[in-house]
Specification:
mainly alpha
Length: 280
C-alpha cells in the first residue's frame, strides 16, 4: 500500500498536467516561456532561498519550545534535507517524518511533541498565507463597484482567523503560545518574500498588469499545492491558475508559465538538501 501511494500521486500529477495542457494554447505557452528574462528568474530564486532560510528560523522557535537546541547552521541543513525528502517522497510529509525520527533519537523529547511543533509550524504558515490572501483580495475588490462589498467581509474573515488561531494556540498548542506572535510575524514576512518571488517571475515575462490578480491566484495555488494528492504539488498550481483565469483578468500562458517556473525553482532549491542527505 505504501508503494502504491507515491505511484498514485505521480499518476494524478501527470493526469492534471495533461488536462491543463489540453485546455491551454500550447504554442502560446512555449512562446511565453522562451521570452523569459533570466535576471529576474535568478532574483526570484534568491528570494525563494531567503524565504526558506527564514522558514527554518521560524521552526527554531518551536524546537526551542520543546527543549530541542540546534544552532542555525544545523537547523538549516536539517531543513534542506527535509525539503529534499518532501520532493523525493510525495505528499510533503517525508521530510517531516525524517526530522521527527532524527530529533527524537538525538534529544529524546518524544515524537508527539515534535509532531505538534511541526504541525504548528505548518499552521503558522497557512495562517499568514490566509491573511495575505484576504488582504490582496480585499484590495483587488475595493475599486470594483460590483465586488467592493466583499472588501469588509474579507477584512472580517482575516480578523476572525487571527483571533480564532490565538484561541486555538492557547487551548491546544499551549507549549507554543509564547511563540505565537513572533512566529506569525516571521510567517507574514516569509509569505511576503514568496509574493515578491512571484512578482520577480512575472517581471521576467514582462507581465506588469493585474499584479494583484496574479498574486491572489498564486496564494490560492500555494494552498492547493499543500494538499497531498500530487507529486510535490506538480499540477496543482497549474490547475489553480487555469481555473482562476476564468474569473480573473490574467493571461493564461503567463499564469501557467509562472507556476512552471516557480515549481522548477522549488525543485532546484530542494535538491540542495541532497548533498547533506548523502553526507549524513
Amino acid at each position: 500500500m505504501k508503494t502504491l501511494k507515491p505511484i498514485l500521486k505521480i499518476c494524478i500529477s501527470i493526469l492534471i498536467l495533461y488536462l491543463v495542457y489540453q485546455n491551454i494554447d500550447a504554442p502560446a505557452l512555449w512562446e511565453t516561456l522562451k521570452t523569459v528574462n533570466l535576471f529576474w528568474v535568478m532574483l526570484a530564486f534568491g528570494l525563494f532561498i531567503l524565504s526558506q532560510y527564514i522558514s527554518s528560523l521560524r521552526l527554531q522557535y518551536f524546537w526551542r519550545d520543546i527543549g530541542v537546541r540546534l544552532n542555525d547552521n544545523e537547523n538549516w541543513k536539517l531543513y534542506l534535507i527535509g525539503m529534499y525528502y518532501n520532493l523525493l517522497l510525495p505528499g510533503g510529509i517525508g521530510g517531516d517524518g525524517y526530522k521527527v525520527f532524527l530529533l527524537d533519537n538525538q534529544h529524546q523529547v518524544g515524537k508527539s511533541k515534535l509532531i505538534k511543533a511541526l504541525v504548528f509550524d505548518r499552521l503558522s504558515g497557512l495562517l499568514a498565507l490566509g491573511l495575505w490572501l484576504c488582504l490582496l483580495l480585499s484590495l483587488y475588490c475595493w475599486p470594483l463597484e460590483i465586488l467592493s462589498h466583499f472588501t469588509p467581509i474579507l477584512v472580517l474573515l482575516g480578523l476572525i482567523a487571527l483571533v480564532g488561531s490565538n484561541i486555538l494556540v492557547n487551548k491546544v498548542f499551549t507549549s507554543h503560545s509564547a511563540s505565537y506572535w513572533p512566529s506569525l510575524g516571521l510567517s507574514l514576512f516569509i509569505q511576503g518574500l514568496q509574493l515578491t518571488t512571484c512578482c520577480s517571475i512575472l517581471y521576467a515575462f514582462s507581465a506588469f498588469k493585474h499584479i494583484l490578480a496574479y498574486l491572489a491566484l498564486f496564494l490560492v495555488s500555494s494552498i492547493a499545492a499543500v494538499i497531498p494528492i500530487t507529486f510535490g504539488g506538480a499540477g496543482a498550481r497549474e490547475l489553480t491558475f487555469l481555473t482562476g483565469a476564468q474569473y480573473f483578468p490574467v493571461d493564461v500562458s503567463v499564469a501557467i508559465s509562472l507556476s512552471v517556473i516557480f515549481y522548477l525553482l522549488t525543485v532546484i532549491a530542494s535538491l540542495l538538501g541532497m548533498f547533506y542527505s548523502f553526507k549524513k
